[in-house]
Design brief:
Chain lengths: ~375, ~150, ~600
Amino acid sequence: MGPEEIARRTRATLCLDCGKCTASCPVTRVDRTYSPRRTVERVLLGRPEELIHNDHLWACLTCGQCTLRCPSGVDYPAFVVAMRALARQADVEGAYAHNAVMQQLMMIMAGPLKQQRTGWLSKGLRTAKRGEDFYFVGCLPYFDVVFADLGVVSTTAARDTVRLLNAMGITPVVSDDERCCGADLLLNGDEEGFRRLAELNVQTIVASGAQRVICSCPECANALRNDYPRYVGRLPFTVVHLTELLADHLDLFAPDSLDEVVTYQDPCRLGRYLGRYDEPRALLQATGVELVEMERSRANALCCGSAGWVACGRCAKAIQTERLRQAQATGARRLITACPKCRIHLSCALHDLGGEVPLELEDITALLARALKAKGKGRVTNDEG
Amino acid sequence: MTVDFQPRIVVFACNWCSYAGADLAGVSRLQYPATTRVIRVMCSGRVTPGFILEAFRLGADGVLVTGCHPGDCHYISGNQNAVITVDRTTQLLRLLGLEPGRLRLEWVSAAEGARFAHVMSEFTEHIRKMGPTPLKPETCNLKPVTR
Amino acid sequence: MTRIGVFICHCGSNIAGHVDVEAVAEYARTLPGVVFVQRNMYTCSDAGLSEIKTAIVQQGLERVVVAACTPRTHEPLFRQACREAGLNPYLFEFVNIRDQCSWVHMHEPEAATRKAQDLVRMGVAKARLLEPLEEQELPVEPSALVIGGGMIGMTAALNLANRGFPVKLVEREAQLGGLLLRLDRLYPTQEEARPLVEERVAAVLAHPRIEVFTSAALLEVKGFVGNYEVTVAAGGQSHTLKVGAIIVATGARPLQPVGLYGYDGQRVITQLELEEVLRGWRGVGAGRLGTGKLGVGKLGIGKLGIGKLGDGGTGEQTDNPPPNLPIYQSTNLPTRVVMIQCVGARTPERPYCSRICCTTAIKNALEIREISPETEVYILYRDTETQGTRYEAYYTRARQAGIQFIRYSPQRPPRVTDERVVVYDELLGANLGIPYDLVVLSTPLVAQDGAQALAQLLKVPVDEHGFFLEAHAKLRPLDFATDGVYVAGTARWPAHLEETITQAYGAAARAATVLSKEHVVSSGVVAQVNEALCRGCGRCVEVCEFGAPVLVEVAPGVTVARVNPVLCKGCGACASRCPTGAMTARHFTDRQVLAMVRAALSEEMR
C-alpha cells in the first residue's frame, strides 16, 4: 500500500486542517514540535519520505484521542501504523526499548516452538486442555522476566483472571501454544510478523475447540477482535475482555467487601478502542470501593504514555508523570489499571519518581479477586495470588 | 540428529579476557572445531538478551557468552551484567521452549588459551548431542529489526 | 551505498597455508557495498599499508575491512593508516582470520575457508554501519595533589616535585610525619625511625615546588583527570586548588584492642604504645619523648588514645584516655614481657592478616632484649608472617636472641589474668601460665579515620574493611578505576615500609604519566545519550564504575543523562542497561552487533 492509498483508506484525505488532533494529542502537550496535523499534511502534500525518515513517525501512542475528536473521522492511529509499515520496507525502524528484547520475543514466537509458558498456574486454579472458553493470557509470563526489576509480577493478573473465571463457573483452556497477540509488531509496522502470529494463534484456539476467547489484556482483546479479521479473515470464535464478561456477574461481589478509595485508569484499548467505560466501573462499584475519577477519564482519559515498546523516552515519562499526578490529585491511594502494559509503564514512572507520588498501582483483576475472597468475610487487604 | 550435523554457534567474547584467550589458543596452535563465530565486544556486560535471542531466532544452535572471571573484569563489574543477562535470557528461553542448555556463560581469562579451545570443543559436542535448533531461519524469515 | 574496501592478508603461509585466501577474496567481492578487494602477502608491511592508503584515495573508500591476524595487535596500525589517508580511523573494521581461524583449524581447510568467509561477511556487515568518531583533547593541569603527609605522601610529593611538577600536600594533623613519628625503631635493621622521618619532613618543607597545608581538611573534589578542582580548608581559609592528578596516601591506624585480653593501656598495651615505652626505657628521660618540634604535644598522641607517659609528659589527653601508663623507668625494667599476636585480626569480623605485626613484634622484642638482656620475652603467635630471606633471617635472629615463641590456636586463645597469661601449648598438651609484668598486644592496621568520607569525596571505592580499593590488583595496583587518582601505602592495605615507599614511587610515576602530557585524549569509543529518548532513570549512572554518565536537569522537572567522553571507557554496560535505547555504545551499537549476529547466521543477511 502506497502513501496515497493509506491516506485514502484512513480518511486522511478528508483532513480539514483544523488542528483538533494536535490540540488533543498527549504527545504534543509535552513535545511541542510533534503535530498529528503536520504529519498528515506531509503525506497529503506528496512528501511521505519526510515522515518516514523522521523520528516523529514513532512518537504516536495510537491512543485515539485525536480520532475521537476529528470532525472528518480520520483514523490517525491507523494512518501512522500503515506509514510505519512503509518505513520498514525502507529499512527504517523506531528506537526499540529494552534492547529490542520484546520485539525479538514476538518474532521468535512466530516460529515452530513448543513453549512452556503456563508455569504461572497455581494450585486451586481450574483449567483445561480443551473447552469452550479459551483464556488468552498474552505475554504476561515474559513480562515477569523482562520487568523483574520493576517489582511488577504480571502473571498475578493471569492467576486472578482464572480465579474470577472459575468463580463464574468457567473452566478456561490455557495453552502452551498461545503466542503473543502481535499487537506490538503491528504497531511497529511488521505486518508480516503480525499475520504469522495471528495465524498461529487462531490455529491454537481452534484446535482447543473454543468458541469464545477471553482476554485479560485489552491490547490482546483489541488485536484479536479488531485487527485479526483483516489479516486472517473472519474469526470462528468471539473475543471478549474479562470485564465485559464479569459485568454480567456483579452478584459475585458484595458491596461491602472492600473499603478503600481508588481511582481508575481507562486503558486506551479498553476505553476508546473497545468502548468499555461502564463495565469496569460497575465492577469496581460492586465491590464497595469508592471510585474517585481523575480529571480526565472515560473517553477523555490520558494514555499511559508508552506504546509498542518503541520510542519510550522523555515524552513518555512526562505523560506518565502527569497521569500519576492526576491520580494523586484525586486523593486516592490506589490507582487501578485494567491493562498489564498500563501497569508496567506507570510503575516504571512511579519507580523513577522515588517516593514523590504516594500511590499504589493495582490491576483490576487483583482488586476483584480480593473482593471475591472478602465476600461475606469482611474486609481483606491486598495479597498476592 | 544426523552424524554430519555441524552446529552453528555464536560466541560473544570480551576484548580483554576471552577474546585474548581465543587469540592465545591460536598462537598456541590449539585446534578446535570450526563451528563457532566470534563477535568481539569490549565487555561481556555489553551483551543483552536481545543479542542472544536474535542469534537463536536466526537459527543459532548454541550461543556462548564469554568474559573475564569474576573479580577480573577490566571494567570492574561488567561481567556481573553478563551474569544477569544470561540468567534473564535463560528464563526467557525456558518459556519459549528452547532448551536452556543451548545458552552458556563461560569465563575465560587472557591467559587461558587452552581453556578457550576446550570450551569451543566441549560446547560444540554438547550442542551436537542436543541436535539442531527447532528454529530455522527459513521459518522465521521476518525482516530483522533494530536501530 | 557505502563504498567498502576489503583487504585480505596471507600472512605468509600463516593464513594462506590453511585458508583459501583467493576464495575468501572472491566471496568478498559478492558482498553488497564492497567495491574493492585486494589480497596482500603481509597487510601490516609498509607495502600493505601503502596499498590501503592508495585504495582509500583512488577508490574513494568509505570503509576499510582488513581480514588478517587480530585486532588486539594491529588495529591501531591500520587505524593509523586510515587516518593518514584522510579516512576517520573508526571507519575501519578488523576481521580475525588467523589467531581465531587459520591457526586453530589447520587440518580443516574447507571449514576454515567457509569460516573466514562468514567472518568477512560479518566484518563487512558491521563496517557498513560504522560511523566516524571523534577523539577529544583536553589540556592537563600539570600539578598534583597528595592527600596525607606521612612517609608515603611525602615520598610521592618529593618524587613528583623533583620531576618538576608543583605539588600540593595536604595533611590533616598539625605536623607532617604520620605514623612513623610514633615509632621507635624500624625493622629489620633496628635503626631509629625518627631521623628518617625528620629528614624527609625537612626535604618537603624546603622544596620550592611543594606547598604544604597542615591542620587541613579536604572539603570538595570536582572535575576529572587532568582537570581536578579541589577545595581545602586550612589556616582558617578556604583554598581552591587546580591539579591534574591526585594521590591518596592517608595511611591507616592500629586497632585499639578495647575489650580484648584485658587491654588497659597500663599493663596490657599495644605495640604502638610499646614504642613509646621503649624510648622511656632507654633513659631518654622519664616522661620526655623525643626532641624538638616532634615533641609529645604535637604528636597528637592524645587522639590515638594513648594518654600521658610518665609524670612529666606534655601529652594531650584524649576522649577515652586510659589511666597513666606503666611507670617503667630505666631502673624498673620488667622481668617478663608477653606479646600476643593476631589480636583482633584473622577473626571472622576481620579475617585479614595485617602483614607487619609479626615483624613489629620481633623488632620490639629484640629491642627489649637489647635494653634489658635479663627480661624474658614471649611471643604468643598463631603463624609467623616473616617472608622472604630478610625476614626469615630476622625470625631466626629473634630465636637466637632467646625470644620464646609459643604457638596458640584460635580455638583456644590465651587468657590474660591479673598475674598471668595462660596459653594452651598444643605440643605439650597443657596450659602454660606465664607470670607477666607487661603484655603487649599486636593489633592489625585498620582503615584510617575518615577514609570512607574521603572515598566518597573522590568517588573511589573502599573494600569491605574500609581500605581503598585499587582498579585491578595485578594490572593496575596503584590506580583507582577513576582516572587520575592513585593510591599508595597502608591506605591501600597493610604493608612493610619498604613496600609502601615503593608504592609511593610507583604512584608518583603513575601520576606523572598524566601530568607529563599536554593533553588527555579520550577514545572515540564512548557512550552517548539521545536525550529525547532518555527518561533520566539513572540506571546508567548506577552501573558505570567510572562516573562517566551524570544526570542533569535540562528543564524544570526534566532530567536526562549525559556522558563525559573523557571518563567513559567504552565498555557499553550503560547501553545494555538503558531501558529506552537512549544510550548508544558507539562503535558497538545494538544495530552493529545485531548486524554481525545476522551475518554470522545467514547467507541472506548480507
